[in-house]
Design goal:
This protein is of the alpha/beta class. It has five helices and seven strands. The longest helix is centred in the N-terminal third of the chain and has 25 residues.
Length: 175
């Protein structure tokens, strides 16, 4: 009798585990992560700011600042062409200089990056959001997130990709 109960318990446990794995396996793995970050002016941003818009997300670090500035300058032109598109920039600051106050770093970033006034510039102090999105300290990456918050494009920034890959994808998503 004891063996029957043990077998029954094992079978029920296995069925529960299989059911849980099926649910986890059915979720899309390209969904944009939920986040909460502040910009240079301490305004909080989250997934709610991205819903119902096509969002270009630029992942950058201190070492890729100039590439990110160039990227945002080029991508801003696409926003003027398409009102359904918005841009946000997320800066990975986990490798920031030690003992530098956040306020000093914020003012230095805003002075170095002229696009920070026009493009929401979110600060990822511990790098968690950037890591979860596949960001790299040595590369500026561009992600395109559709209105359903699925990541449909995730590549390193290259100027040639704007006309050949990004623009056609934005046109397709807008239709």
């Amino acid at each position: 009798m004891r063996n029957r109960w043990q077998r029954l318990f094992i079978i029920v446990t296995m069925l529960c585990l299989v059911d849980t794995l099926m649910v986890l396996g059915s979720e899309p793995n390209n969904r944009f992560i939920d986040f909460s970050l502040e910009d240079l002016h301490e305004i909080k941003y989250s997934q709610l700011h991205m819903k119902e818009k096509i969002t270009l997300v630029i992942l950058q670090s201190r070492t890729t600042l100039q590439a990110a500035i160039d990227c945002k300058a080029e991508l801003k032109k696409l926003i003027h062409e398409n009102q359904k598109v918005q841009i946000i920039s997320i800066m990975d600051l986990r490798k920031r200089p030690p003992f530098v106050p956040k306020s000093v770093l914020k003012s230095k970033i805003s002075a170095q990056d002229p696009t920070s006034r026009e493009v929401p510039f979110l600060l990822d102090w511990n790098g968690d959001v950037t890591k979860a999105l596949g960001g790299d300290d040595s590369k500026c990456k561009v992600l395109i997130v559709d209105p359903a918050l699925n990541v449909v494009y995730n590549k390193e920034y290259k100027t040639t990709a704007i006309d050949s890959e990004i623009r056609p994808l934005l046109v397709k998503l807008s239709d």
